[in-house]
Amino acid sequence: MSRLLSNFRNTMMLSFALALVIIGGYAHGPQGHGAVFLQAVFRWLHVLFGVLWIGLLYYFNFVQIRVMPQIPAELKPAVSKYIAPEALFWFRWAALLTWLMGVVLAFSRGYLLEAATLGLWQGYTPGVDMQFTFIGTGMWLGTVMFVNVWAFIWPNQKIALGLVEADADAKAKAARLAMLFSRTNVLLSLPMLATMAMNQTIFG
């Protein structure tokens, strides 16, 4: 077992295989393997990628950005050359897949347009369309966060980390911009997560 857990790829492959066994079990449940089952799979993927995305967002803001000024200058290249680029790879692709699975889930449940318009698509009925107002707000917050990752955080991080040629001033400016947009995503993350976590429980 220790040899298995020492290998990250094998650990993840086994974890995924165990998850597939459980997912297969749900396919034999009362709903069968029709539309509701597929929605459950999409939700699982949405949560899986979302945990990776937001987990890395919190790692950057709770740990890396705060601790970097305390790291001796001779050790900082280890973070900027090896750790940060790898973390940003998983960060940006997890953001894309989280957003994509969220859109697929909303579409499969038949409320994508209602959510995108905050419940106004076919006229707003108080109480009835409130669920679309809330989940739509969460979807728009998630969309802004996703765009921030690809349009601002990643392009500026490439400059700050030296993956794109730039002088010292440009790197410093890019690092600050990346930090500000990353911090913006932290700001938006708690209200976004409130809608995602509470909507399913309150409205089903």
Walk me through what this model shows.
With 204 residues, the chain is mostly helical. The protein folds into 2 domains: 1-33; 43-203. It has 7 helices and no strands. α3 runs antiparallel to α7 and α6 (130-160) packs antiparallel against α7 (168-203).
Give me the secondary-structure topology.
Elements: H1 2-6, H2 8-26, H3 35-67, H4 76-108, H5 112-116, H6 130-160, H7 168-203
Please supply descriptive tags for the structure shown above.
flat; single chain; 204 residues; 2 domains; mainly alpha
Query: Roughly how many Å is the radius of gyration?
Result: 20 Å
Tell me the total number of β-strands: 0
Low-confidence stretches: none
User: Number of domains in the coordinates?
Assistant: 2
Strand content: under 5%
Largest sheet: none
DSSP helical segment count: 7
- Helix/strand-derived category reads mainly alpha
Distance between the first and last residues' Cα: 40 Å
Q: What sort of overall outline do the alpha carbons produce when their principal axes are compared?
A: flat
Query: What proportion of the residues is helical, as a percent range?
Result: over 70%
Helix-strand pattern, N to C? Answer: HHHHHHH
Mean pLDDT: 95
